[in-house]
Design brief:
Elements: H1 2-16, H2 21-38, H3 40-52, H4 56-68, E1 72-73, H5 74-80, H6 85-97, E2 101-106, E3 109-114, H7 116-128
Helix pairs in contact: 4-6
């Protein structure tokens, strides 16, 4: 921590022209307020969502569901990803737990659809990637 404080002091000295201990303390307070504002529960929920999307199988499933814009049966999703039924079930369960997909029973079939949350996330990701590189 001392090394981080010294580095912050050098930075503030550079930015302000001179740095007093009050400047460092004030900035540390501001940074603590920013960190506290994030909220532990919120950060955990966001990390759960990112974790759910971190598998190629799960990300492919949500991309297909978002692109479809409608419910798809598990059997349709099975045709898209090369995983066992158990693997597919596990992937869909993780996505549902993270609030990224919703499911419903339709007779003997189970259907899934993308939630608004994952649709928004995929839209943002699509806009943030430059595929021309």
């Amino acid at each position: 921590m001392a090394q981080a404080t010294e580095r912050l002091q050098r930075y503030l000295d550079d930015e302000l022209g001179e740095c007093r201990s009050e400047d460092v303390e004030r900035r540390l307070e501001e940074l603590s307020t920013l960190e506290a504002g994030l909220g532990t529960a919120q950060a955990k929920a966001e990390l759960d969502v990112l974790s759910a999307l971190s598998s190629e199988t799960r990300y492919t499933l949500v991309r297909v569901l978002v692109a479809a814009g409608e419910e798809l049966c598990v059997c349709e999703l099975q045709a898209v990803v090369d995983v066992t039924e158990s693997g597919l079930s596990h992937a869909l369960s993780a996505l549902a737990d993270a609030g990224l997909v919703e499911s419903r029973k339709d007779g003997r079939w189970k259907k899934y659809r993308a939630t608004n949350r994952v649709t928004a996330l995929v839209t943002v990701l699509e806009g943030s990637v430059n595929t021309d590189e």
